[in-house]
Specification:
single chain; mainly beta; Immunoglobulin-like; 5 domains; 5-stranded mixed barrel
Length: about 650
């Protein structure tokens, strides 16, 4: 038996040794698709001396597009704006390099900046002391259009030609361009609230820009541009976001490697709405999309309106996806130009695979099995199901569901609202509101906690009616086990902080979104509640009644209420001076309205003019007094 086990172990190690990680960034020497007509077929490429197998179903990643490999290979260097710099990650399986990911550029990380000195109605943008630019705009949404290189197109659904805040911008096609209205940009202002949030804002001579593109025929064909002006939205207008980084640290449970964390960084056109990040899962058979919550955060109210999410390494966020949807607030529309507002779909900008902890160790294979589109497939693309990568870039392909022949259903895009008429229902006159969720607090574990939202009156429009305000509370950070927010749509919700062991501290962050319903203006704020059993955390008992009567050798009675509602709590009372006094156990009653009532009634108690109560917590076999000031009363009445 031992011999068989050892043989199995040796064979297993040999199998692992046959799979080694691979990555290369270099110039593409050649690309060829397999014979046939299927759009999902793979092929092979040569990069910097490496011959690499491209599996069936692989999509080639461009700055704003995913292209079937066969289409890419058959397009030829001219349509690819070659020569091309490419990046490939995969594994060497049985001495064959198999790609798992494949991205293409003309020159990786190519970017430039400059000041605009001239604009032409045909879309040309002249940079002072620099080149002429054109936006790669096949559907002419940002400019007069450019159709020669569709692989390197700008993103014309999730704006990639934007202001600093992510608001879409355009090159006027001539005087009075209705799709690029001059009235949407105040003269001489570099920071303003836009008048019409569903129309683009024109780029102007003198603007300073940063851009990325490819060199073609003496011009730079741009697929990404940021104009250095701050365009804000407010009230019922949707928010816009710009994503700078979407980094995914691919996880590996092996103790020999260290995984990176996930990180999302961006800017926004308004700071009063929350940011929510969803993974966009695709059905491997139909391509139908569904959303899965990953994280949420707030925009930091500042000149930049920056937001950032860091998810620590080892955090389980489910299968990784090629796209993540970032939402700002809860209003999402498609403008008349076809641009998404209130939501932004962002491909992963960098995949960070685990690194060896100890130099000299054997590097493990790259694990593609936790990347959803590679494991399960991309779904339907132009009538063809793109399934799991085949051959799989690893020792063993993960299991995947079989698919029926694809069907498609036409989708009618929503009609954008008309916000061109001031004061109309779609564009009411905005008001200013600034939410206040109160100061961060430290509370005793096991107590009833009240939250409270209000408006910052010094920064909000005066005279707003309370009936016009709505509230939405949610927990956005910290352990959620045992937490139930009561009345989350009121200004004053509540919850019970779960009991913890001595020395343990738990912090939870709660967010309130206040909406002024007539205008649609929203504002949010957060508060952190930390629950523990430290020397600074205690409950606040209150005497309801305290009596003494001379009968039966002295009869005393007391009723006390406290917000320590957890069943682990108890209470004792001392009649007379605490020093040398006797603690008597009180009887616990029912909890109601965030408080629990304790009572005591006993005889043979000498007359007193002072009574003191103490709270206790019992966890396991340990009963410990709650620290903090002890509450007493001298209001003794005749019983």
């Amino acid at each position: 038996m031992n011999t068989l086990f050892c043989l199995f172990a040796v064979l297993f190690q040999l199998a692992l040794a046959q799979v080694q990680p691979f990555s290369v960034t270099g110039f593409l020497d050649s690309a060829s698709a397999k014979s046939g007509s299927a759009t999902n077929r793979g092929g092979s490429i040569s990069v910097s001396g490496f011959d690499i197998v491209i599996p069936d179903n692989l999509l080639v990643e461009f700055p704003a597009a995913f292209v079937p490999f066969a289409e890419f290979a058959e397009a030829g260097p001219s349509k690819r704006a070659g020569p091309n710099e490419v990046s490939v990650t995969g594994n060497i399986v049985n001495n064959v390099i198999i790609a798992g990911q494949f991205s293409v550029s003309q020159l990786d990380l190519a970017a430039a900046s400059g000041t605009i000195e001239g604009l032409s109605s045909d879309g040309a943008i002249k940079i002072k002391n620099g080149p002429t630019l054109r936006i790669n705009d096949p559907r002419a949404r940002y400019s007069a259009g450019y159709t020669n290189l569709p692989f390197f197109t700008a993103d014309d659904e999730n704006a990639s030609i934007t202001s600093f805040s992510g608001f879409p911008m355009c090159v006027p096609r001539g005087p009075g361009d209705a799709k690029c209205p001059d009235s949407n940009r105040p003269a001489g202002s570099s920071s303003f609230v836009v008048q019409n949030a569903t129309a683009m804002v024109p780029i102007r001579v003198g603007d300073y820009i940063e851009y990325s593109g490819i060199q073609v025929g003496g011009e730079t064909i741009v697929y990404g541009m940021v104009v250095n002006i701050d365009i804000q939205t407010s009230g019922s207008q949707p928010g816009y976001v710009r994503v700078e980084d979407a980094l995914i640290g691919v996880q590996d449970a092996s103790p020999t490697v260290e995984a990176a964390r996930h990180r999302f960084v961006g800017l926004a056109s308004r700071s009063d709405l929350p940011i929510t990040i969803f993974a966009v899962d695709e059905d491997p058979c139909t391509g139908e999309e569904s959303e899965r919550l990953v994280a949420t955060t707030n925009v930091v109210a500042s000149a930049r309106n920056k937001w950032e999410v860091k998810i620590q390494r080892g955090t389980n966020v489910g299968l990784f996806t090629r796209n993540y949807r970032i939402k700002i607030g809860d209003t999402a529309i498609t403008t008349g130009d076809g641009i998404s507002a209130g939501t932004y779909v962002q491909p992963v900008t960098e995949w960070i695979f685990p690194e060896l902890v100890t130099p000299g160790g054997t590097p493990p294979p790259l694990d593609f099995s936790n990347i959803g589109p590679l494991k399960n497939g991309f779904g339907e693309v132009d009538g063809q199901v793109f399934g799991q990568l085949n051959p799989w870039p690893g020792a063993t392909a993960p299991s995947v569901a079989a698919c029926a022949p694809p069907t498609s259903t036409p989708v009618t895009p929503p009609t954008p609202p008309d916000d061109t008429v001031p004061g109309s229902p779609a564009n009411p006159v905005p008001v200013a509101i600034v939410a206040n969720a109160g100061a961060d607090r430290r509370v005793l574990a096991g107590t009833f906690v009240s939250l409270s939202a209000s408006l910052n009156t010094s920064q909000s429009t005066p005279g707003l009616l309370p009936a016009d305000l709505t509230y939405a509370w949610s927990q956005i950070a910290g352990l959620t086990t045992g937490i139930t927010i009561a009345n989350p749509t009121s200004a004053t919700p509540s919850f019970v902080a779960p009991m913890v062991a001595a020395g343990v501290s738990q912090s939870r962050e709660f967010r309130v979104i206040i909406t002024h319903t007539p205008s649609g203006t929203k504002s949010n704020d957060t508060v952190v509640i930390t629950a523990d059993r430290s020397s600074t955390s205690f409950d606040h008992p209150v005497f309801v009644s305290l009596t003494w009567a001379s009968r039966q050798g002295g009869t005393a009675a007391a009723t006390v209420r406290t917000e320590l509602v957890d069943p682990a709590g108890s209470m004792r009372i001392i009649f007379g001076p605490v020093a040398g006094g006797t603690e008597r156990v009180m009887t616990r009653g029912a909890a109601a309205n965030g408080q629990v009532t304790y009572t005591f009634s006993g005889r043979s108690i000498p007359n007193f003019n002072l009574a003191t109560v103490r709270s206790y917590i019992t966890v396991g076999s340990s009963t410990v007094i709650v620290p903090g000031p002890q509450v007493n009363s001298t209001a003794v009445t005749a019983g």
